[in-house]
Write a structure and sequence with these properties.
Number of domains: 1
Largest sheet: 2 strands, antiparallel
Shape: globular
Number of strands: 2
Structural class: mainly alpha
Radius of gyration: 21 Å
């Protein structure tokens, strides 16, 4: 699909150009199914863990439900915003995000990493919202500068510098999975915007030294890579989680062991309700049920791309596309990690893994996509 053809900009992309009859409710219905499935899966994955810790079996479910309600409230509010007027806050948003990411590096470490800012009942994971601000910034940049890039490729240094700043701060937490996800989604936005392939390849080449440096900076990353290359070599050490995950996925068979019947969640995984929730799901609902979840994410991708194609401006096209790709790529990374197709990394499964910041950031993205789906350009 060619997204690089500049569309006719509407006179004013405001509420008057929107209508609920245009909003893609089938897209929202997919989201509701994923949210419901996620909450049920979270209960199954966390109930034994919380009971074993002397906590309420619904502890994580209640908290996740609260963040879902807050997130859906944000979805409703954002779906009615004037996205064109909000563009003036994008660059200040980048600065604020960079400041919060820097502040996070001085926060109290949790499990030897600094990824959260304590805000009372919520530990804010700024990197989750950095995904959104990066997509908005790139969409805004290419909308304003696409015609100049062909004659002056140095213009690309601006978005690449912003990417390097945000991704570098996240990598310093340390976190290599999220920057990899954001970089992949960003390059797809570059491609959709019509940036020539050689400049994208040059960008990839430029990041290789930084990636290798980060890979060797922490011994556990090399251990994970070795485990990925030879999963059966160290099943009691660095490869323990992957080995248990593969065992659970395989033991689920075609139809699974049944709701609540997973064994991997019985303390065989340290925290089965976070990044490794997919093996619990696969063990209980089997290959068929797992494929239904994969197909739901595929449907989300197809719907998101269609919304992007029908968006009223080039800016909203890239925004809808970028946010959709960020969510679906994250799901792909998580499922690939759990099934041994990629090295393990700390990336949650959207709508399923426990995490207030993750679910709210995802629903903010959904609100923006729904907002764009309710617009039509002048030719329509």
């Amino acid at each position: 699909m060619d997204f690089s053809q500049r569309r006719e900009r509407p006179d004013h992309n405001s509420i008057k150009n929107r209508s609920l009859k245009y909003m893609d409710f089938s897209f929202f219905f997919i989201i509701l199914i994923l949210l419901a499935a996620g909450l049920i899966s979270l209960f199954s994955a966390s109930a034994f863990y919380t009971t074993n810790k002397g906590m309420d079996s619904l502890y994580y479910v209640k908290r996740q439900a609260l963040w879902m309600i807050v997130g859906l409230g944000l979805t409703a509010a954002i779906s009615r915003m004037d996205l064109e007027k909000a563009r003036k806050f994008i660059k200040p948003g980048v600065i604020l995000t960079a400041f919060l990411l820097l502040l996070t590096l001085f926060s109290h470490p949790i499990a030897h990493v600094r990824r959260w800012l304590p805000l009372g009942i919520l530990k804010l994971q700024t990197s989750e919202f950095a995904k959104i601000i990066l997509v908005l910034y790139l969409a805004d940049f290419f909308d304003h500068n696409l015609s100049h890039i062909a004659s002056n490729p140095k213009q690309l240094l601006k978005p690449l510098s912003v990417m390097a700043l945000l991704l570098g701060l996240i990598a310093a937490e340390p976190d290599l999975g999220t920057p990899t996800l954001m970089f992949g989604a960003a390059l797809l936005i570059f491609f959709a915007a019509g940036v020539k392939a050689r400049y994208i390849l040059m960008s990839i080449a430029a990041t290789i030294p930084a990636f290798v440096f980060e890979l060797f900076r922490h011994a556990y990353r090399l251990a994970r890579l070795k485990t990925f290359m030879s999963p059966s070599d160290n099943t009691t050490g660095a490869g323990y989680q992957l080995a248990q995950s593969l065992l659970a996925v395989g033991s689920g068979g075609w139809l699974g062991k049944g709701a609540g019947a997973s064994q991997i969640k019985l303390m065989y995984l340290p925290v089965p309700h976070t990044d490794f929730i997919f093996p619990v799901i696969a063990e209980e609902i089997g290959f068929v049920g797992s494929m239904i979840i994969v197909l739901l994410f595929l449907a989300l991708l197809i719907k998101g791309v269609r919304i992007a194609r029908r968006a009223p401006s080039f800016y909203t096209t890239l925004t809808a596309l970028g946010l959709t790709l960020m969510i679906v790529l994250q799901a792909f990374f998580n499922i690939s990690m759990a099934t041994g197709l990629m090295p393990t990394k700390g990336i949650p499964l959207p709508f399923f893994s426990y995490g207030g910041s993750s679910i709210m950031a995802t629903l903010v993205s959904i609100g923006i996509i729904l907002n764009i789906s309710a617009h039509r350009n002048q030719t329509e």
